[in-house]
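User: Hey, quick favor. My workstation is busy. Could you predict this chain's structure for me?
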Amino acid sequence: MPAGIAEQVAGGWAASAPHVQVGAFSSHDGGAGFAAVVAERLGAALHPVVVPGPTGADVPAAVAVVGDAEGGTAYLDTAQVAGRHLVGADRLRDPDGMTSAGVGRLLALARGTGVRRVVVGVGPLACHDGGAGLLAALGAGADLTDLRAVRDDWAGTQLVLASTTESPLLGFSGASASLGELGVAPEVTQRLETAMGDVADRVNAVLPPARDLLTGLPRRPERAAGAGAGGGVGYALQLLGARTDTGARLLLDELGIRPLLPGSLLVLVTDAYDHHTVHEGVVAETARAALETATPTVVLAREVAVGRREGMSLGISGSYALRPGEDLAALAGRVARTWTPAPPTT
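Assistant: No problem, here it is.
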């Protein structure tokens, strides 16, 4: 949601229930705007850079660094350099030929700040090259024959993939198949799936997959959760050794939200509370964390499209939508009177 919404809701709640302590926290799913949320919350230093965009033209971006250089963490927003907003709608109908090389360049610049840890937010991107452009930009070569050397070079950097999705690279729920939901024609998604398979074959030839100790079968990295993020940018990061988590789940700890949940009432604010919201993203992940500590949770939204039953598995006790002429601060004040009523006077 737009910046300042959390503070507006907190203000509305506090005005209606001055007897309770109210805190406002922003979070994110790992997509566009990821680094900005972290920078605002943690007071990051922004290092402006210029890198190639998905079509090769230079685009501005920033590396957000928190802490001292050697012990610090750099947070990257891949949408800045490869986001879907950087190209026209016609180009998005067939992303073949667009590259993730700019993400590789951004990674190199982040490491150049001296940090030992780099957290990379990856959501839907314009590029769809299986991360081959990213790896080539780091020195793996166009055919990825030097991938092992690149992986070894990055072994001393703690990489974290903060993904909006847990989809694999290939298959019916993979990166190419998901483009169908964005209006890409089936013949295009099938062609892209084949190209993704070719990238995976080249990778597995250079880095033969380890075998599972129980089954003896190869643990193919293209099937890993999150590999499909950003058209394969997630896959490339995992090949470099990145630990993978959803952005929303990761930020519970990065932003210090999780320790505050026990003994609190969690109020989640979102534009739409719908079937997508209850399955993945900030609302779902934060509600699950609250459920683990028996923290009651309610949702405030501009629009509510699901009933109470859909949220019960997340421990969400109620959801409230805007009434005509009402803003989110007023909605918060109205709900506060139900959930945090004033104590009885004696």
